[in-house]
Write a structure and sequence with these properties.
This protein is mainly alpha-helical and about 130 residues long. It is built from five helices and no strands. Helix 2 packs antiparallel against helix 4 and helix 4 runs antiparallel to helix 5. The longest helix is centred in the last third of the chain and has 32 residues.
């Protein structure tokens, strides 16, 4: 039975915040590397959120999906939708990781990463608009 609760989402947000604070204390002098780590951790954290949504079927945590619609859809459809998000954001996370490794090896300036990562996040988010229950 699906229960309306945002407790897990709030805990995930607190965990993300704690992760970012903790990562800021890493003894890294290279600003580009530190930024790349933050970008990857953000993508990985969103992937973890999508895995939580998949496991708990709380697809109503996703923008545009009402709790009532999630309940009506049934478990199988909720899982199928959540899996699509897991795959899409998993691809984003892998892409950001691979890009970051390449950018670090090529010693690209951090503004390049920022532009690529923002475009990737926006593109990924927009690509999920067509996902329906």
């Amino acid at each position: 039975m699906l229960k309306r609760s945002y407790r897990g989402f709030v805990l995930w947000m607190a965990g993300y915040f704690a992760l970012m604070i903790s990562a800021s204390f890493l003894p890294i002098k290279d600003n580009e590397l530190q930024a790349r780590i933050f970008y990857f951790l953000t993508a990985a954290s969103i992937e973890v959120l999508m895995l939580i949504v998949y496991k708990t079927e709380k697809v109503f945590w996703i923008n545009g999906i009402r709790y009532e619609d999630a309940v009506e859809a049934g478990s199988e459809r909720r899982k199928a939708l959540a899996l699509r998000y897991v795959k899409r954001f998993g691809s984003l996370t892998l892409g950001i990781f691979l890009f970051s490794v390449g950018a670090q090896l090529l010693k690209l300036p951090c503004w390049v990463d920022l532009c690529v990562v923002i475009a990737a996040f926006v593109g990924c988010a927009f690509s999920t608009i067509r996902f329906k229950l």
